[in-house]
Amino acid sequence: MKVDLFDFDLPTDLIALRPARPRDAARMLVVQGDAPFADCGVLDLPKLLRKGDVLVFNDTRVIPAQLEGKRGEARIGATLHKRLDLRRWQAFIRNAKRLKPQDRVEFGAGVTAIAEERHDDGSFTLAFEGDEPVEVLLERAGRMPLPPYIAGKRKTDEQDREDYQTMFAREDGAVAAPTAALHFTDRLATALDEAGIGRETLTLHVGAGTFLPVKADDTDDHQMHAEFGTIDAATVDRLNAARAAGGRLIAVGTTSLRLLESATGEDGIIRAFSADTSIFITPGYTFRAVDGLMTNFHLPKSTLMMLVSSLMGTQRMQDVYAHAIAQGYRFYSYGDSSLLIP
């Protein structure tokens, strides 16, 4: 399909630079099949779902994966995006033309790494030196990796260490937040419990590839970056049982959706999963696991815009985004939410 089918014009003043306060005060556009759009709020979620439905969250935790350093006099920026082993990460590099294999980069605070290998996409393998866990080094020298559309408008600060982390964050490894879950609070979780709506978690370590634009003219020519995910057997059993009992699985975020679909066979049964996934969902895809999606508003011509168009229909999503823009919804990572039920 032509990538231009997923384009739209967004006024820059609708890009949210900070989250709503409190988090659950965000707006939520509800789209159910062909029904008229409903302008609601995130706090309305318990009454919009049914008893027995299950919300599926990603419990990955964002690490401070953005580093600024030097190789000699050259300034080098690094954004880690995939762990390779205990001390080695693949990283996108700014000013990569000044970096050669086996160069040492000094990131400050006693943190150094060797640029071991340059990959075909221009990224490098960075091997961190020393005995301290890499997570400790990153806490000392790294910054939260805010997406470019926020970081390009303001500096990352200490508030982002809290704001850019969901209440479900448990497993270190993401370099981008599963932002649909940023709206959840203890207050909202309690209301969902009281309404009989279940909650389950899985883990997909979101990579920086999620921010990369689709440069190809046709979706067939786009290469997705792989991300590591896991769903344990006990969680799978509960999810399958909920579906068998008539409950709907509502993915909270595209990361949860992509891992659920990766773990589900053509028979519709979800199975335990622990592997990389590079699933790329475009219109024509047959969904096997999810019955709905709660998600923020995505970038034009992005793989995530293609995913929501696959779920709801390409023209339907163009209409959804036109409505959201006309009504002043806030877009992207710190923005408002939508509930999409085909």
UniProtKB/TrEMBL annotation:
Name the GO terms of the biological process aspect: tRNA queuosine(34) biosynthetic process
Q: Which GO terms describe its molecular function?
A: S-adenosylmethionine:tRNA ribosyltransferase-isomerase activity
Q: Name the top EC class.
A: transferase
Chief location bin: cytoplasm
User: Catalytic activity, per the record?
Assistant: 7-aminomethyl-7-carbaguanosine(34) in tRNA + S-adenosyl-L-methionine = epoxyqueuosine(34) in tRNA + adenine + L-methionine + 2 H(+)
* InterPro entries given in the database record: QueA (IPR003699), QueA_dom1 (IPR042118), QueA_dom2 (IPR042119), QueA_sf (IPR036100)
Question: What pathway annotation does it carry?
Answer: tRNA modification; tRNA-queuosine biosynthesis
The question of whether Glycosyltransferase is a record keyword is answered with: yes
| EC number(s) reported in the record | 2.4.99.17
Q: Name one Pfam family in it.
A: Queuosine_synth
Q: Is Chaperone tagged as a keyword?
A: no
What domain of life does the native source organism fall in? Bacteria
SUPFAM superfamilies with a match to the protein in the record: QueA-like
User: What are the annotated GO cellular component locations?
Assistant: cytoplasm
Sorted UniProt keywords: Cytoplasm, Glycosyltransferase, Isomerase, Queuosine biosynthesis, S-adenosyl-L-methionine, Transferase
Q: Where in the cell is it found?
A: Cytoplasm
- Name the family the entry cites: Belongs to the QueA family.
Q: What exactly does this protein do?
A: Transfers and isomerizes the ribose moiety from AdoMet to the 7-aminomethyl group of 7-deazaguanine (preQ1-tRNA) to give epoxyqueuosine (oQ-tRNA).
Assembly mode:
Monomer.
UniProt-listed HAMAP family: QueA (MF_00113)
Q: Which PANTHER family match?
A: S-ADENOSYLMETHIONINE:TRNA RIBOSYLTRANSFERASE-ISOMERASE
This protein is called S-adenosylmethionine:tRNA ribosyltransferase-isomerase
Tell me what organism the protein belongs to: Aurantiacibacter rhizosphaerae
What gene codes for this chain? Answer: queA
